[in-house]
Amino acid sequence: MDQNQEIIVQLQEVNKKLEKISNPFKFAWLNFFAGTFHALGTIFGTVIISGILIYIFSQLNFTKSISSWIEDTLTQVKWEKVITPQTQMIQQNN
User: Fold this and answer.
1) 20 to 30 A from 87, CA-CA: which of 1, 9, 10, 70?
2) pLDDT at 64
3) What's the angle, vertex CA 71, arms to CA 66 and CA 73, rounded to 5?
């Protein structure tokens, strides 16, 4: 008997779930709320992770390394090849 009652309880739970799914309005509301909470969770998670990353990067000082990289890059550029003959002619005419 104990096993039969356990099966009956499980079948009643399955019937309750099937009632929610079979009623289209209840099913739509459940999906609407599930989607809303999923989107809110995603937004809050993104905000928290972005905030942590911004805080970490604000504590680091990248300005010296970035400025030295830009300076090295600019010194390695061969400006004669960058300036085209047309721009040279314009400069000569002025």
Assistant:
1) 70
2) 82
3) 95
Q: Distances in Å between the alpha carbon of 31 and those of 23, 24, 40, 53?
A: 12, 10, 14, 33
Number of domains in the chain: 1
Q: Retrieve residue 44's tokens.
A: 């809050």
**d(C-alpha 77, C-alpha 83), whole Å:** 11
Q: Specify the range with the lowest mean pLDDT, choosing from 17-26, 56-65, 82-91.
A: 82-91
Q: With cut-offs at 50, 70 and 90, classify the pLDDT of residue 35.
A: very high
Summarize the confidence of residues 9-37 as an average pLDDT.
Answer: 87
